[in-house]
Amino acid sequence: MKLKGKVAVVTGAGSGMGEAIALLYAKEGANVIVADLNEETANKVTEAIKQAGGEAIAVVADVSKESDVQNMIDTAVDHYGTVDILVNNAGIMDNFIPAGNVTDEHWDRIINVNLTSVMRTTRKVLPIFLEKKSGIIINNSSVGALNGSRAGAAYTASKHAVTGFTKNVAFMYAMDGIRCNAIAPGGVETNISTSINAPDEFGMGRVMSGVNNNPRNGQSEEIATIALFLATDDSSFVNGVSIAADGGWTAY
Fold it and tell me: pTM of the predicted model, to two decimals?
């Protein structure tokens, strides 16, 4: 088991890529905090882990709220004594809204969930990591962080910022045994589309103009294997990078 005895916090772990990561981590021996906005799905994933012989705790968390972030990490420490791995997976789409149509409310919501939450969770675990001179942070980003036309303005800006934040954290704390990397998935078959409602017609039309270049959609389990690699010593010399997992979409 590659993660035996490790404690991992996975946000957005009730479904999709977060669920696949949580299940794989538990299979590899980690104690997992299954954090999700949806209590029912968080409990479902936690129960699946336990039925398979793993260890997990479900935590209801809206990562856009500081109090929920605090509780999420505190729960891990209270039950398992520490945190070794943080996976910032939770995120939402932005209805493909272009800059000219963005409202302040929409912008703030996307930035808070996709970016500010990553800062807050990282800020919360860093004292733990610094004390023991060890820790892994994995930010689930997007090919929208590598290109300008995979979503609307707010989502694109948030994911580009996650890339910069990942690099900054990686460099700042590299001498303290802490690594921070990102995964940039392309089209993956998850339920993130449920966060899309009343998409902007113009914005969606522009984004979809390049979708035929996508060789194929991926599966959540394919992203989970990358998250496992980044969480282990197999990637000990990998720090501050974004790994594109998109079947070659961005190679075009």
Answer: 0.94
Q: How far apart are CA 14 and CA 203, in angstroms?
A: 29
Say which residue, 251 or 36, is predicted with more confidence: 36
Q: Which domain holds residue 22?
A: 7-251
CA distance 55 to 41: 16
Beta bridge partners of 184: 244
Question: Tell me, what DSSP letter sits at residue 100?
Answer: G
pLDDT single digits (tens) 80-105? 999 999 999 999 999 999 999 999 99
Average pLDDT score over the chain: 94
Cβ atoms within 10 Å of 4's Cβ, excluding its own: 9
- Pick the catalytic residue from 80, 155, 173, 252: 155
- Number of domains forming the structure of the chain: 1
In a domain, 1, yes or no: no
Note the pLDDT tens digit of each residue in 116-160.
999 999 999 999 999 999 999 999 999 989 988 888 999 999 999
Q: Which CATH number does the domain housing residue 222 bear? A: 3.40.50.720
> What does R_g of the chain's alpha carbons equal in angstroms?
17
**155 in catalytic set:** yes
Residues pairing with 56 in the sheet = 32
* Helices and strands in the chain, H and E counts: 8, 7
Q: Mapping DSSP to helix (H, G, I), strand (E, B) and coil, where does residue 214 land?
A: coil
Q: How far apart are CA 14 and CA 183, in angstroms?
A: 19
Strand order in the sheet with 242-245: 55-60, 31-36, 7-11, 85-88, 135-140, 178-185, 242-245
The answer to the question of residue 2 being in a domain is no
